[in-house]
Structure of V(D)J recombination-activating protein 1 RNase H domain-containing protein:
Amino acid sequence: MSPTSSTKESSPSTPKLFAQLSERQKRRRTEALRQSSSPEEINYVASKNFKDADAKYVFNYLIDHPEHAKKVRQFCEDLLIDKDKSLTDSDSLSMYVNADLTKRQYLLIRSMINKISPKLMPGYTKIQHEKEKCYPQTDMISVTEGFVKVNLQSLLDTTMYRLFNLITFNHDEIQEWVMFLKWGCDGASGQSMYKQTFSDDNINDSSIFMCSMVPLKLYISNSTDIVWQNPTPSSSRYCRPIYFKYEKENKELTKRIIDEIEEEIKHLRPFVYGNVIVNYNLVLTMVDTKICNDLTGTDSAMKCFICGATPRNMNKLDQIFDKTPNSDNYRFGISSLHAWIRTFECLLHIAYNLPFKSWSARGENKKIKEDSQICREMLKIQEEFRSKTGLLVDIVKQGAGKTNDGNTARRFFSEYKTSAQITGLNEDLIKRLFVILQVIASGLHINVPRRFQTVHTGNS
Ligand SMILES: [Zn+2]
């Protein structure tokens, strides 16, 4: 049987070129040759085919020294790498930020990578320059020993300018867009104190008060078309600081700073890029209850800042429904994360106080509490959560509040059967609250039944 006659694809009259054949076909076609000659003979013929003396030398060398093949291969592969290839400065910065690298880490990775490809990663100074492009102009940032304040207009415009470099859109059409952002502030105490003196003795770096904003989405005005959306709205990744100050959070400071920034918001000019006009819409929702209380003039942390109900009123449902909620204060929104944690903590406290069935231990209840009933109840519940579900519930962490976080709360509610057993609370109550929390967190528009709506506005 001749080697070509067996190939079905090509007719015997026009045999394919050897190079075009598949590995299997090549094997078949050379079968007769391999049978009739020894490998040495074949290699000899092959080496004779090299016109170039160097190539012939390398070929023969490899046949004599197959143990060096790996080194030669590595050398060949290195030749194939494009040594002039490099990451762009902005790609490098993006990696630097997203991987949360330190300067030292970046330089270490760079020195390793650049051994193979010397120009692949740009130097650290290039990253610094690229970073500077993300900042507002320096004269728009006021810095003193005790605080830093960024001009809001310029911060927003810089953010927009950076975004416009990312997105693609129709440049010819005149369009009106809206940039939707959330902002807010909070204080944090117990920061590390550093060995540095301040010329003003009143400044103390153990407490810090901070105001920041997060861009959420950019959409076309009067439509649902979204141009850009923050992929991680709850992460600090896109968070932009507006103001920070070394000072303990207090009512006056909160009010003054919020008023100042709200004044700036009132006078914001739209951002114009070609034919596109972008209006800013900032909502003050990054706030905790303490800030809400300060801003609404609610004097007690136990009081509801929407309807003014005190703990005393809260067990009397008819009194609660008679209250008129201040709908202005709806603007602070509901943090779905904190709704989980607070509802969870509320249920825990009810469970601790089950022995005397009252919210705060006063009068004779105080005596029961002093008899350490509550402590026993508390420890028993915490212990059981730990052994049955592995959850650390309501345990005070050193300098950082309690171990109760969103995950603990979510587990508490989703395993409502176990939670009810441990706490002694009604299973149905926990389950129903679980449903409500899931509805709040779903992000969907919810049709509230009419009978609840009337309760809501206090008209019943
Ligand atoms: Zn209320």
